[in-house]
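Annotators were shown the component list below and the corresponding predicted structure, then asked to write short factual statements about the assembly.
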Amino acid sequence: MKRAQTEIIGLMIVVIMLVAIALVALRFVLISNSSINVDSLLSAKANNMANSIKNANLCDGNFEQAIVACCNKENFCDRESCRLISEEISSIINSSEESVYVEAIDAYGNKCFSVGNCISGIASSSYNFENEVLFRAKICRKE
Amino acid sequence: MKKAQGVQFNWIFVVVSGAILIIFFSGFGIKYAELQKNRENAEIARGIDRIINGLRGQEQYKTIDINANFKFEFNCDSFTINDNYVQNLNGKIIFTQDNLKVNKLYAWTKEFKKAYKIDNFVYLVDSNKDYYLIKDGNEEYASKIYNELPSIFTNFKTLYFDELIKSQLGKNNEFVFFSESSQDQINELKEKGDLLIIDSINNIVTFNKNEKAKVLNEALVYGAIFSGSYNAYKCGYDQLTEKFSNINNIYIKKAEYLQSCCSTGFCDYSLVKSSLLNYNIESDDNVIKLLNAQLYNSNCKVVF
Amino acid sequence: MKKGQLQIQESIFVLIIFIVLLLIGLIMFYNFTISSIKADIASYESSKFRSLIEILPSIPEFRCSNLGQEQECIDLGKVDAFSKLGFDYFKEFGYRKITIEVIYPKEDKSYNVYEKRPRSFKSIKRISSLISLYDPGQDKYKIGKLTVEDYS
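Structure shown to annotators:
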C-alpha cells in the first residue's frame, strides 16, 4: 500500500508540473500574434514614405515629375533624371531609420529606377503618375 | 465511551475540513468566473474602441456585433462596459446615448466642417431602438435626413404622424419632429419613447424635458438624434466647441505668420485674420471663405 | 488497530498533499490569467501608440488644407502655431513627446509639437516615420521625420 501511495503522489507531481509547463508555453505562443501589428505599422510607414517622396519639391518641379522624366529617359533639372532621383532618394532614406526599397515601373513593366534592397517587406500603395508610371516604396522587415 | 468520542471527533474533522475545501474551491470558481467576465468586458471595450479609431479617418459606417448583450454607459470622456471596464476615448467626439443595453451597435462617422474641417464625429447607434422621423410640417428636410443615413440603419423609418399612430410600436423608440408639434402629439408620444423637435430654420433642437441646444448643420442634427438626450448631446457639442476654438486659433496664428513672411501689395492677410478673430462656431461661413478664396485668386497662399 | 490507524493516517497525508498541489496549480493558473489580461491591455495600448504614426498626419490641427479641401501632408504653419499656442492636449496624446524634423531639403529645423512627461517612468518607446510637409512660407513641399515617444 505504501508503495502504491508513493507512486500516486509522484504521478500527481508530474501531472501538475506538466500543466504548469504547458501554461507557460501557451503564453509564449500567444505573444507571437504581435507580428500582425508590426506589419500594419510598416504599411503605414511605407505609405507615408511614398506619399512624402512623391510630393516633395525638386528643383523647379517635384519628384513625381522627375520620376516620369526618368521613365521617359529625359533630363530633369539639367541632369540625367534617374541618377538625380537615385541620389536624392538615397540621401532621404539615409536620414530615416528604416531599410527601404523604392522603385518606379513604366507602362511596359520595365523598372525605371530602384533604390535600396529588401529580402522581405511591406509595400505602400502604388502611385500612378500620368497613367504611365507606377511608383511605390517598401519598408523592409527587420530580419 | 472513548471510542465513541473518537468517532465523533473524526466526523467533526471530516465536516470542517470538507467545508473549508468546498468554500475554497467555490470561492476560486467564483473569482475565476469574475476574472473571465472582466476579460470579456475588456475585449468588448477594446473592440469598440478599435472600431471607433478605425472609423475616424474618413466617412464610413460599420456594425459592431458582439455575441452577448452588454451594458454600454457613455461618460463623455470614456465609456464603461457592464459597469466594470472603463475605456478612455482620448478626446474623440462621440454622439451616443447615455445608457445602452445591446448586443449590436451601428457606428458611423460624419465630417463636421465650417470654413475648414474641424473633426469627424463618430455616432454609436442602438440597433434595438426604433427611430421615427416624422415628416409633418417639413417633409423635405425629414426625407433628406432619412436618405443620408447609411443602408445598415434598418431601424429608421420616415412617416407622417397619422401613420405613426396606426403602426405597432415597440418598447424602445425615439420620435423626431422637424417642425413645431402640437401638445396633443407630444402627449400621445411622451410615454412611448424619447422625443426630439428639430427646428431647422433657427437651428435649435428641443429634447425631452424641454431642454434646448444648437444644431448648426446636419452633422449635429444626427448627433442630437443619436444622443437622444440633452446631456449626451451637450458633451459632444462642448468638445466640438473647444476643438473649433483650438483650430481657429491655429489659423489665426498661421495668418499672422503669412502676414509677416509673405504679405505683398496683393497678399494681405489682415482681413482674414480679423475675420478669424471674430469667427465663432455659430458664425456664417461665407464671408470668411470668400476672403480666403480671394487670396487664392490673387495667387497668394491661402490660410485654410 | 494501530496498523489500521497508521494506514488511515497515510491516506489522509496523501490526500492533503494532493489537495495542496492542486491548490498551488489553481493559484498559478489564476495568476497566469491575470497577467495575460494585463498583457492584452498593454499590447492594445502599444498598438494604439503605433497607430499614432498614421493618425497624427491626418488630424485637422496639423493636416494641409487648400480652400477647405484636405491634402495628404502636414502644414508646418499649423504645426508651428500648435506648438506656440501650447494647448492642453493631454486627453488626446497622454504622456508622450511628438517632434517633427525637416530632413529634405536638409535644413536643421525641428518642431517640438507636444511633450508631457510623467514624474517617473520606466521606459521610453519610440516610433518614427517619414511624412510629407508643406511649408506655407516658402510654398514648398518637403520631407520630414515624425517621431513619437511614449513614456511608460
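Statements collected:
1. The beta strands of chain A are 57-58, 61-62, 75-76, 79-80, 100-105, 111-116, 121-123, 127-129, 133-140.
2. Chain A has one domain: 3-140.
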